[in-house]
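Hi D.,

Good news: the full-assembly prediction came through. Inputs first.
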Amino acid sequence: MAGLLRRLRRDYFANPLDAALSITLGLLLTAALLAGLRWALSQAQWAVIQVNATLFAVGRYPLEQQWRLWLVTALLAAASGSSWGLLRALPRRDRRREAQLWPGNDRIAVAGFAALALVLPALLGLSLPLQLRWWLISALLLAARWVCGRWGQGRRGRQALRLLPLAWPCLYLFGLGLIAGGLGLIAVPPNEWGGLLLTLVQASLAILLCFPLGVLLALGRRSTLPLLRWSSVLYIEFIRGAPLITLLFLGQNILGFLLPGGVAPERVWRAALVLTLFAAAYLAEAVRAGLAAVPRGQLEAARSLGLSTAQALARVVLPQAIRTAVPAMVGQFISLLQDTTLLSLIGLLELLGSARTVMANPAFLGRNAEVYLTLAVLFWCCCAALGLGSRALERRLNPNTTA
Amino acid sequence: MMTSPPPSAAPLMIEARAVHKWYPNGFHALRGCDLRVARGEVVVIMGPSGSGKSTFLRTFNALEDFQQGSIVIDGIPLCDDLRQIDAIRREVGMVFQQFNLFPHLTVLQNLTLAPVLVRRRPRDEVEAQARRLLERVGIAEQADKFPGQLSGGQQQRVAIARSLCMEPRILLFDEPTSALDPEMVREVLDVMQTLARDGMTMVVVTHEVGFARQVAHRVVLMADGEVVEEAPPQQFFTAPAQDRSRRFLEQIL
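Then the structure:
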């Protein structure tokens, strides 16, 4: 108690200026919090969210086919849980002795996740069957985490861990196929996808595809072959000099002209293509900075051991460059995710687009604040997940920090 | 503790004739350097900084190119043919001043990377050999650590083990102890001395006079891109033939 008082005094009331600042800021924060709470609880009308929850989540995806989306979500949850468990069961080689099945920050993460999973569906006012499904999916994730954490210690786990880089792309393609349909399933054309579903499909496609393209562009920019170098520079500088929205409009118009009728991909795929090409240019600059940070001696050492240039790049230089570039790259991915809102301006009903159709409905006139706030929170959740993932990745990849 | 002299009829491992190198800016870095190294021989190259000794050494595994002259490594002429260069690099190991270990790989992975990738040997066999080599350089217990967690001397010993894991016929050392704290120089020199005694062909660029006296069969002095003098260490350090050598020795002894 006395210690708490002393800390309070030291951190907030050390001198008159500190005390004045603490009191003013404290009052302001309390006032803002109270005003926000009063608005959220008494003035705001959350019916607009509750009624349109499905529209925000998946747009006009046919109701009787939505079990496919639930299946994809469940698979993703199971895969995330098992990867998490496996990574914990088999920490990096030099940390094996300090390995813990449930390290402290994991316990906090699990508790936070469970609390969110329990409260959030109710807060959003979802119907009881939907709430039940979310709880089941959350439970699936945690169960997979627990089972793989147990089972994965030792040889079996190491084999499973080696399969992960293969399993995730397969799962991604399978999920995309399940969403799109075909091959016996009823096809759902992409122009019926919408809401968060479309946002996530666009962002994940662009993130996955821009990564290899960005790495190639970065290597091209540092190449000794003049033609390759100059075309990379030209591409990167052109894309970085143009606003994304103009490129999106350009993509919608030009691709239709350039390609013969019928061959031009659907608008959704065209937009994904433009997003990918756009993000690749920025990613290339992040990777180039990473490449520049790898000392020359690394390449020399690899070459003197007999590795070919390609082998030296793939096994020695790029892993280090990408490790350095992870924070910058994740920053790019986060802004890419937010840039998907621009798709609403070319008529795609992603999260912002479907929100605008809702707000245009006379029944929900004047409910803009509720809708935009929900959108902001949803985006924040996605970006926070990306950020957390990147920090975990950095910690695992960086051998020089002794935690 | 002198290294036993190499058999006089041993085949030549390195034969450099009249090597000239100009940098792109026109600087004449090597001015007709000659060097012949027989199998099992230990040659130490000394000289003031900027004399071209590192550059000369780095031409032996094609890390530097040259414009005139010829270099033959273990019977294979060094030329622009990339396959020849790769073949030579497999047989010639190199130890750098800055260690140049791969920081994202564990010590063991540093050793096994090239033999598995380049020589396509089975991983189990290479790992067993790597552990034996780490034991030989006295750091077997660090196999699963990352280079950043080791001291400079330990890192340089890992770098030597990494070169040895490719089973090279020649080892090049580019100022292997210059980046080390003084108390760590000994441990690295000891490993090099053991290698020399076991008959490894070595070319060493160094300022360590003690090592040159005890281990080298021959000392080469370079200055201004030229080989000034070449003599057994006894003769070189006590009665150098050239004025330039005498001036150099006055500065370092």
